[in-house]
Structure formats: structure tokens, C-alpha cells
Recover the amino acids of this structure.
């Protein structure tokens, strides 16, 4: 099964695997960074840490503010939607606290539902929906 581009198998066909012997059990392939070793030795150099900004706490803050606003008016729905999106992003990132992201998602969904309820009530009260 070959075509003019040289493909000889389907993209879903199994790929042959070759197993070779691995490294010795006593061998350690990882060596610490020179900066981290210098910091541990007391040279005063700080270790290089690649930190990513956290979005989970901001999602939780936005969800709480949107939930409080949704108890009084329905115009907090944009902030609630932003909190839902930020919570989903936080859930998909491995560096985020999952419990915090789940709480922010639950609170943001509640805020969205409460705000939507207020907006539907407004629409019926002022004869916009009939």
C-alpha cells in the first residue's frame, strides 16, 4: 500500500518498537545545576527557578466577586464568565492547585446561573420576553 509520496503504511498502523538495554542501575544521569550547587554551598547565588504566573487564585477571586454580585444584580455575568474561563485554564495547567481551580469553577458556574436568573427575571418584569 504505497502511494506516490512514499507512504507505505496507514497512519494508524502499529509502529515497530526496538528495545535496547538501559543504563546501569547505579548510574545517575541527572546532575544538579551549578547555580543551585553554589546556593547550597552558601555562595549567595540564588537558584534559577522558572516560575509561571498562577491564574488559579485570580480565578477564585473573580468567582467570589461575581458570586457576591450575582446575589444582588445580574450584571455580574461577564465577570462570572471570565472566572469560568480562567478556572478551566487553571484546571488544564499542571502547576496550578486543582482544589483551588475546582472551587473557583464551581463558584463561577453558580455565579453565572444566579446572574442569568436575574437577567431572565428582569426581562420578564419589564416585558422584554413577553
Amino acid at each position: 500500500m504505497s502511494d506516490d509520496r512514499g507512504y507505505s503504511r496507514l497512519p494508524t498502523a502499529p509502529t515497530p518498537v526496538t528495545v535496547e538495554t538501559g543504563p546501569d542501575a547505579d548510574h545517575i544521569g541527572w546532575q544538579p545545576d551549578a547555580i543551585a550547587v553554589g546556593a547550597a554551598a552558601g555562595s549567595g547565588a540564588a537558584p534559577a527557578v522558572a516560575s509561571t504566573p498562577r491564574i488559579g487564585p485570580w480565578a477564585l477571586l473573580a468567582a467570589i466577586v461575581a458570586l457576591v454580585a450575582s446575589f444582588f444584580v445580574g450584571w455580574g455575568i461577564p465577570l462570572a464568565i471570565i472566572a469560568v474561563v480562567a478556572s478551566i485554564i487553571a484546571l488544564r495547567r499542571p502547576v496550578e492547585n486543582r482544589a483551588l481551580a475546582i472551587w473557583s469553577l464551581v463558584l463561577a458556574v453558580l455565579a453565572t446561573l444566579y446572574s442569568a436568573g436575574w437577567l431572565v427575571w428582569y426581562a420578564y418584569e419589564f416585558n422584554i420576553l413577553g
